[in-house]
Amino acid sequence: MDFSGGARLEVRITPADVGKRVSVRQLTAIVDGHPTFTDTVGVLASWDEGVVYITRRTGESVAIAASALVAGKVVPPAPVRRPGGVPVVADAELEAVASRAWPATETAALGSWTLRFAGGFTRRANSVLAGGDPGLPLDEALERVVRWYGARGATPYVQLPDSSPYAARLDARGWVREADTVVRVAPLAPLTRLPRPAREVALSRTPDEAWLAAYHRTGELARAALAVVSGGPSVWFAATPGAIGRAVVEGPWVLFGAVEVAPERRRQGLATAVMGALARRAADEGATAAYLQVEADNGAARALYDRLGFTDHHGYHYRRPAA
Known about the structure:
Blueprint: E1 21-31, E2 34-48, E3 51-55, E4 61-65, E5 69-74, H1 91-101, E6 106-110, E7 113-117, E8 128-129, H2 138-150, E9 158-161, H3 165-172, E10 176-187, H4 189-192, E11 202-204, H5 209-214, H6 219-229, E12 235-240, E13 243-250, E14 253-261, H7 270-284, E15 289-295, H8 299-307, E16 311-320
Parallel strand pairs: 8-9, 14-15
Antiparallel strand pairs: 1-2, 1-5, 2-3, 3-4, 6-7, 7-8, 9-16, 10-15, 10-16, 11-12, 12-13, 13-14
């Protein structure tokens, strides 16, 4: 139990605690004059319109009427375990790390939400990262989102972990679901032992023209792409004849992305060679865990990452207003 039987029950959490780990007790029933309670521990995801949403460690979202709370307090983060070097983190926390590794060129805060814009290069850099509470009733927050993206001539997208309480609420408001994606994680150490190619993989801090050409971005989109892929805490670009890749290191994590192999050079181990070179550099910087994002219906890529030891961490998707 999180509240001792003799302790004075008091609600010591507010909407300002959104994003923190909390323990709450709610009144569930009164039977024969005796109250019964239920305790819930997890991350306070939002507090909106009299409803408190808490995301448990399992990813389950629990909705509790604020009027039913009889006790509540902020508690320390859950102990971090590192099976194979992979930290145990909540979906929203890893999404925040991933956002810093794929930074938009323009951002604005809306409470705990982040509005992102990057000239139309990828949904991820041109969508709202909806972590925590927007600080406004949901409908008003969505109106702000629509206006902000409309002023930039862009579609208003909201990126949500599948476990987010906002997923069901946007569904109820008719916002269309698109681009289901899976975030996968793996211990980094095995990736550092991937085979080396006959020709060494070159690593650099900035992408050259050949790298950008292999990334297949041209014109105005090329400029927007360069601004995004060059940003992040510690960015590395890999290139070998027929293949490229990108990695971003932050603390224990390294993101793998932009792994492209020329069609005529596929099935030659170049993708794993690029990832191995990037993994070794990330390990030199202290990283212990890898993550990447793959579209849920990309069976070939998921099979490759299965062989490399990646497992599913969580899913996310995008929402946009119905046309």
